[in-house]
């Protein structure tokens, strides 16, 4: 049996192992403490500002304060589009726990909101978390007061007073000024990558048409912000007045339009369809630009119902369309002044006469004058006075369609102007180049086609605005004025410079003489309906009737169906001896220019003249003896239109 062995451990070796463990653990601990201290230093010193802001963001929110929208004024300072107080109820999505329960409580206070429940639920689901949803708007004071009593007891409900757009003249400025309406997804995308946060505010309305749309940025202003303190649930607990940034109101826009003239223009149209445009012939300022029938833009501010919109959109007289710039019409006999100027440019003498027997044979066709018995021998001035078609049929190819086209563009027909609002239609004054491009199968211009163009028919189409510019340039005589609508943006006046008209003054005088005879000779086509009865102030004008439908289909020129009737036109300027205002009236399917368009133009022109201080002085002074004698003389019988027996030939006055 072996003896047991005894082993002895080395104390120094064991102690060395212990020291190594202590050193390793201490190093790890020191490294951890160093890392912790470094991280705390990073958070406190380096990133302290960042986290301080994040902490404040959890505590404070900023609520958008929409700015007052700029006003739109007429030239005399009358407010066309302004703002009025509006009471509304808002719903804050992130403060609501049970939407159905909240809506039940609101419906108890405001029963009318129950009908909009589906719309409210949809809007809440589509809105961002902190963007309020409109429950009810434009409340009466009684409803608003009742909501205020209970709002504090219903989580997420706010009763606020805001501003809403209001159009004081209703439909008188509907097409020019336009309207504002709710922001659409398309509107937000149009703002680019960084849309204005104001677009998300429930009370904000964006310009959709006319001046409201064209000057949206200037009218909108800059939003402010209200600093509020919120708790962990996002509920408001306090407001910080020192952190509030006030909004910057939008700029006011002053138009060249005159509210009284504009309102009168819409009034004289009554239920008729058409347009009227009046210009200052020296400055190009548009004093009146009316499209009839109109619509009430106030309907669109809070949101028009689909049924009401369809009634407007489906009505055959198209109240939503701006007929002053967005429609074009055959100018009819109002175009004849342009043909006269083209003939003069071609060297035709203004005293050369053409015998009008009532018809004109060209090739194998007969073209008829509007007066079946004919006008007899007429020179250039009398051709305008009587609106003699035969004279223009006989003469027009001596000028040629290209010269007619070039003259028309000098006078503003077939042109797009640098107008401040969109929606213009260019129209068309044909030429040989146009025929080559538009009619590949028959690109040659035929002389017979010039006959229709010469009396403002055929391919020719122009807008009411172009006709007003055309008349203004004839009356002005030396400057090719261009139209504009804006007089001032904020406090900054607009300024314009015009080029020479490049038409000899003696040629323009021939045309002006003819227009004077139209309105002031007893046998002129517009004599009866051109008398202003304002002292010695006389008006110069030109009537026009434009065929819009084949007489084969309409059966007669005096068709009973509205859409088959001819257009009636009248262009004029006044005073005759010192022109200042030019006016064009287009009466859609209004039959005749002399009988229907001229009386409307006369009434519109009288308002402008009566408002002008210089004209008032002329009106009250005594009428010269020779004029008084002429006025008391018995007038000759009216010249009336005779139906055109050839259904293929356009009519004329």
Write up this protein.
- The protein is an alpha+beta fold.
- It folds into 2 domains: 62-179 and 187-198 and 237-255, Penicillin-binding protein 2a (Domain 2), CATH 3.90.1310.10; 266-296 and 322-632, Beta-lactamase, CATH 3.40.710.10.
- Helices cover 38% and strands 19% of the residues.
- It is built from 24 helices and 23 strands.
- Strands 2, 3, 4, 5, 10, 18 and 19 form a 7-stranded mixed β-sheet that branches. Strands 12-11-23-22-21 form a 5-stranded antiparallel β-sheet, sandwiched between helices.
- Helix 10 (259-269) runs antiparallel to helix 22 and helix 13 runs antiparallel to helix 20 (505-520).
- The protein is elongated, with a radius of gyration of 38 Å.
- The termini are far apart.
- The model is unreliable at 631-650 (pLDDT under 50).
- Pfam families: PBP_dimer, Transpeptidase.
- The chain crosses the membrane at residues 22-43.
- This is Penicillin-binding protein 2.
- It is found in: Cell membrane; Membrane.
